[in-house]
Amino acid sequence: MPKKKDLTCSDCGTLNCYRRESHFPPFCQTQTAPPALLKKAVIRYRGKGPDARMAHAAAEVEGTYYGKLTRVEEIIAFANRIGAKRIGVATCIGLIQETRLFVKVLEAHGLEAHTVLCKVGSVDKTEIGIPDNLKVKPGCHESLCNPILQAGLLNELKTDLNVIVGLCVGHDSLFMKHSDAPVTTLITKDRVLGHNPAAALYTSNFYYTRLFDTTHKL
Fold first, then answer.
1. pTM of the prediction?
2. In 70-188, which ranges are E strands?
3. Statement to judge: residues 181 and 99 lie in one domain
């Protein structure tokens, strides 16, 4: 017999945590979260520490510009509010043109940009045990994506804020794990959907019904 599913926020029909205009369901994590955990989080948002500065800057950008600025502009506004001057850009090689434009915009706004490409180090995939048949183009040198080195190089530069531009799923996780500076994302890669991954969800009742096909192992 399958284990009973624990209800979480995606099962909620009231979303009362936002405006408090309704009621909290019995499983609401606002109600069930350990009080000490909630208190610890709130304390970190107060004062003048780095978490507090980011939380206040994010709230100010959201409250001032919601629905008015592009994400490119929001990143600049956020960087300005946390005092970030040196911006690291961890980019996919396939989005280098977009990155070049983004860097020009950053520099136009007085920010110092440092870009590190995903293929930095030029290490062939087979050197870490990936079989040749799993290359995009087998039979030739194909450098692995190197998010740990990307993060390491930006750490050495002591960047104040790092921005991901199109790193692959998993490579972005490794970059965030190893980055000393806080990380935000400009572009989430989705080659099939023109870098708009939400489109798969919006069309899951028609074009992308295969999302619910459990016989197709991913």
1. 0.93
2. 86-91, 112-117, 161-165, 183-187
3. yes
Q: What is the DSSP string of 124-140?
A: BGGGGT--GGGSSSTTS
Q: Provide the 3-class DSSP secondary structure of residue 110.
A: coil
Residue carrying the six token digits 């990155």:
99
Count: domains in the chain = 3
pLDDT tens figures, 57-90? 999 999 999 999 999 999 999 999 999 999 999 9
3-state helix, strand, coil in the chain (%, to 5): 45, 10, 45
What pLDDT, in 10s, does the model give residues 166-202? Answer: 999 999 999 999 999 999 999 999 999 999 999 999 9
Question: Domain for residue 10, yes or no?
Answer: no
Residue 116 to residue 44: CA distance in whole angstroms: 31
